[in-house]
Task: structure prediction
Amino acid sequence: MATVGIRDVRKHFGPVEVLKGVSLAIEPGEFVTLVGPSGCGKSTLLRIIAGLERQDAGSISIGDVVVDGYRPKARDVAMVFQSYALYPYMTVRENLALPLVMRRLDRWQRLPLAGRFMPGTREIRATIAAEIAQVAEALEIAHLLDRKPAQLSGGQRQRVALGRAMVRHPQVFLMDEPLSNLDAKLRVQMRAEIAELHRRLGATFVYVTHDQAEAMTMSDRVAVMMGGELIQVAPPRQLYAEPDDLRVAEFIGSPKINVLPAVARGDGAIDCLGLALPGPRETPGARLSLGIRPEAVAAVPAGTRECWHGTLAHLEHLGAEALLHVALDGAGRVLVRVDPDRAAGFAIGNPVALRPDQARLLWFDANGARVRPGGRLREVARG
Amino acid sequence: MASVAQGSVPRQPVSEAHRAAARMEAFVAWALAGPAFFLLILLLLGPTVAVVVMSLTDWLFGATSFNWIGLENFAAIFGDRSFWRSLRNTFVYVGIVTPLSVGIGLGVALLIEAGTSLRSFYRAAYFLPVASTLIAMSIVWEFLLHPTVGAVNVMARALGFSGTHWLQNPDTVLPALALIGTWQAIGLNMVLFLAGLKSIPRDLYDAAAIDGVDSAWERFRRVTWPMLGPASMFVVLITAIRSFQIFDSVQVLTQGGPAGASEVLLFSIYREAFSYLRAAHAAALTVIFLAIVVTLTLVQARVMDRRVHYG
Result:
């Protein structure tokens, strides 16, 4: 268990600035997910933490030690790769053993044949074998130890990759999109298993993904990265309910949040597609965006007053819920999440009225920064 | 081809109509594959069969008649000391060229892949001997190895050694030819190894670095070399077969001399067929040559296949 400190880390690849000064303090034993669209720099940041890539500026610390200039081996981190990166020519047993062999046996003891006769080799090999058996047991891969990676399914390879990371009890686990090569069903299962593994090991996890669902379901805190910057770092629930930035609001949550154009009025209310809504005090005429989650909109009988009006364009039944796609009379579409029993009352092509839940309106200024009704909590400071 | 025809026939034809349809399909399959099969026999298998047939006769090149003499040609060859000498010379040559050119080719490929500057220059430079013909380059080598004005002897003398007439000394002629062969073979091996190195996923090196594999030697031993398995099998095989076919430098530089010290199998075949016009005798030598190359291919593929396939 160790802290991971990232201080003002910058990285260029040629003329492209991939990381524009990222700072983040990760607590011991915390599960932090770096999430963002592809190309946002999240994998580069992870590789910098691992020591596989050198930052141009800033520093990384693990525990209380600044590890800049340390080799990956000296950092006491383990990493799980998207491709698993198992050695195809080694059996599962040899794959699991390598991190221990490289650390515990010296150069002479590692020699192919003669190493066996060096003093101490046999004892060390025996403890390594015992530890591999233990990890294999925990991950339920004990029956696969003598196979080669090519003989394993995707899920089994994933477990072996996890095992290779676990076997030497590192302080920090780094995971680079470890589930993205699995099918949807297995991904959901492994999501839960990795979260459980984290609780059991108590180590610090830094997890990179582009899948917001993974980020939301597994993490203690989620760090949303875009364009080489951290936009918001918060626990999943807070990130969903109180996004600081329109980009975060749009990235987190499935189905996506509805975003509607709005204009501040003279009397303090905000006009959004003909509906006056309570909002922050802005200068009259200021352009805003209203973000409203699909479950914060209620579908009511057509003709109801104080509502948006439109027609039902499409209806999706998802079992536990249903989604109404409503084409508004003015412009744009709004997605509404409703109880599946209530969905039966709607027919495609019929008019429908929508009433927003006024307690769950999220306002954003023209730059995408969140504006809260009490006034601006966060000044626009981006450049 | 046969499997195409057979595969389309249902196991238990239910009716006459089915059977007719199946026959039709088999006929069409043969009709479509026929021309290619005919050409395969005519152009690839035919000449080989012709050589085997010829080796069982006493035909002289240009003669109008011949007699069947069975295996007499082979008996004569196996009783001939000069055949055994040329066979031994060929194996010595292969034995020097293959390990040297594979080893150096791998080393050069690793160095080029590790560096960042002038890569295409180095690649082109090492590939030059492959692209140029050995016949033309042999002139340069003949000059380099010349006993009085050659650069090799000039340097040897400068270092205090006496030097020798490399291509006329029975002890040095074969190693000298093998060095020329190695010089020529390195480039192709380097290119093949470069392709093999390119196909190793970067992730494996990253994973190895995290696992604690951080010296250059360990990285080579734990990742690069095992991942190059399929490429090296191919490189060793192709180098062995190509160097088995050593002919042009012998023909240009030594003519098999001095006193047969550099006579190799292909050169013997050439001389039998085109100087002595003993076509049948040359055909028998060719059959032996083919048998060795094919055996080499099978054995090597078998042995190395078992070690390099990650299944």
